[in-house]
Amino acid sequence: NGDTYAGEYFADKMHGFGVYRFANGHRYEGAWHEGRKQGLGMYTFRNGETQSGHWQNGNLETPSTQNTHPGSPIAVNHSKVLNAVQ
């Protein structure tokens, strides 16, 4: 389908830290658990807006920012946190 994943696997599932790039230009960077987004992560839309926070079973449960524009102080800080988690 054109999607790609670069990151950790366990038992043939995305598990640990990884970056999932969707064919439509969207991207999720963060924690995975048994193939689902779980833990700290950031979803970036192709227009550059982001949603980040704590994910549970593939859904954003506790947003820390929503619709943040690229280059904003919040987006930059979340990017630094995600890079530190790696």
Automatic annotation (TrEMBL):
The keyword Magnesium does not apply. Residues 47-70 have a biased composition (Polar residues). Transmembrane segments: none annotated. GO terms for cellular component: membrane. Pfam families: MORN (PF02493). InterPro entries: MORN. Residues 44-86 are annotated as: Disordered. Keywords: Repeat. This is MORN repeat-containing protein 5.
